[in-house]
Design brief:
Layout: E1 2-9, E2 14-22, H1 31-42, E3 49-56, E4 62-70, H2 73-79, H3 91-101
Antiparallel strand pairs: 1-2, 2-4, 3-4
């Protein structure tokens, strides 16, 4: 695992890091193993790291990993995308079942 590039984004309290990983004829490393390796490299907990992309060229046995390393877990949670929760309409399912009965 070789660190290719590291840039600091102080306003967002994170670093953008790019690693190059050689894995030979094995499959692409799992996200869990990548998190463990990056956390060991920077000596921080795994929950302060966000993996963004893992690019593997076909037949090369080499992958490029782009990750964000946050200063704290709170900084990660403040910037992480939150999924929207779909709200069920109260009247819609009841109307559909009443129409089938009629």
């Amino acid at each position: 695992m070789k660190l290719v590039k590291e840039s600091v984004q102080s306003l967002l309290k994170r670093k953008t890091v790019i690693f190059q990983i050689e894995h030979g004829k094995q499959s692409t490393p799992t996200n869990a193993s990548l998190l463990k390796n990056i956390a060991g490299h920077f000596k921080i907990p795994e929950d302060c790291i966000s993996l963004e992309h893992v690019y593997t060229n076909y037949g090369m046995g080499m992958s490029e990993v782009i990750a964000y390393v946050y200063e704290t877990k709170e900084a990660l949670l403040a910037l992480k995308y939150k999924k929207k929760v779909k709200k069920a309409k109260e009247g819609a399912p009841a109307q559909a079942s009443e129409e089938k009965k009629a």
